Amino acid sequence: MKKNFSRRKFLVYGSAAFGSTFLLKGCANTATNNTNSTAPSGDTIKVGILHSLSGTMAISETTVVEAEKLAIKEINANGGVLGKQIEAVVEDGASDWPTFAEKAQKLIDQDKVVTVFGCWTSASRKAVKDIFESRNHMLWYPVQYEGQECSKNIFYTGAAPNQQIEPAVQWLFDNKGKEFFLVGSDYVFPRTANNIIKEQLIAIGGTTVGEDYLPLGNTEVTPIITKIKQALPDGGVIFNSLNGDSNVAFFKQLQGAGMTPEKYPVMSVSIAEEEVRQIGKDFLLGHYAAWNYFQTVDTPTNKKWVEAFRAEYGPDRVTNDPMEAAYLMVYLWKQAVEKAGTADDLDKVRLAAVGQSFDAPEGKVTMFPNHHISKTVRMGQVRDDGLFNIVWATEGPVDPIPWNQFVPATKGFGCDWTDPKKGEKYKLETT
């Protein structure tokens, strides 16, 4: 049964093949190089799309590109932005972080884009962060992440930890068990997320019985399965932050070891409908995922979006949370550009983005001064058609908190890019 928690309570808990370019309308761009603005872009407004279309992360990121293309196609069909068509240049990060950095630099310096929609893993985002900051450019990032970051040059439309990880831990603690085994890919997101989870479990009275990692793309999961069985012989909660192809091996071997979701429920924060489709629903049936959006969200806006996506890409296709966050961020950028009256003056666009709201498939979202958006939190359980039954949700959108309030080093800090006295990290007032 669906259960609703108040937004206030949750603020307490966490206070296909693609070419290298995809042009919706071809036109040369004469933009300049790097600081606050770019030169007028002629008949089109040129944007960059930067995701992994090859390598271990292509299983997830290819569909995000499709969602961004759909949003751009819709916007162009309705008159474009400021009377101009959007021209998209697509680059493949190839699941390789130096490649992401190289392609980001190309998009800004050579292609002269006015913004980039891109990245999935935090490792890829971290690889390009300095490039966007050093050029005072703009990245829109669509995936849930570990927080502990608040960049002037990045807009984050995926969940912060208090909008996904923390409520998932609390829900598991209340409903599935007090002992947790943490498994993740070996890079910044899973490690930082697990540090947050460990601090949260201490605060609420839970126990971390084990923690292990796999290199991204590694499929040698047998040792981890063995460790889980040893640490939880009578069953317990598995919190999964594996990314990419590792999940295929993990869930197949978990089932092969007889570790069913009734005894070993797995909560995943990087597996959504597309991953279920590619891994195989029979291996995931009964397990859980925490997101802000599922295809089964029952609203007219979501139904319209699912129909539009299937009309564009095929009747058997599914939608998921990162795709939805990628889709909506293109619209938020459009609205910011229209409010600013320019796509080329990036400082004006940044300022105009704050406060923008959009009736997204997940529900209404609003961009906060910390460059993160409010989001409804949902828990889903994989059902026999490969979609998710929503078993729990917050009553409405939860405000974003990028600096974690469980981790001692960041507890009590906030971010506000609309106030020069606050900026990236400032001490919150206590009452």
Question: Could you characterize what this model shows?
Answer:
The strands form 4 sheets. The chain has an 8-stranded mixed β-sheet, with helices on both faces. The protein has a 5-stranded parallel β-sheet with strand order 3-2-4-5-6, sandwiched between helices. Helix 5 packs across helix 6 and helix 12 crosses helix 13. Helices cover 36% and strands 19% of the residues. It contains 13 helices and 17 strands. It is of the alpha/beta class and 431 residues long. The N terminus is likely disordered.
Give the secondary structure arrangement, pairings included.
Elements: E1 4-5, H1 7-14, E2 44-51, H2 58-77, E3 85-92, H3 97-109, E4 116-118, H4 122-134, E5 139-141, E6 154-156, H5 165-175, E7 179-185, H6 188-204, E8 207-214, H7 222-231, E9 237-241, H8 246-256, E10 266-268, H9 273-279, H10 281-284, E11 288-291, H11 300-313, H12 321-340, H13 346-353, E12 357-360, E13 363-366, E14 378-382, E15 388-394, E16 413-416, E17 423-427
Parallel strand pairs: 1-15, 2-3, 2-4, 4-5, 5-6, 7-8, 7-9, 9-10, 10-11
Antiparallel strand pairs: 11-14, 12-13, 14-15, 16-17
Helix pairs in contact: 2-12, 3-4, 5-6, 12-13
Annotation keywords:
431 residues, alpha/beta, 8-stranded mixed beta sheet, 5-stranded parallel beta sheet, 13 helices, disordered N terminus
What strand order characterises the main sheet?
A: 1-15-14-11-10-9-7-8
Separate helix tally? 13
What is the terminal-to-terminal distance?
A: 37 Å
User: How many DSSP E strands?
Assistant: 17
Element pattern in H and E: EHEHEHEHEEHEHEHEHEHHEHHHEEEEEE
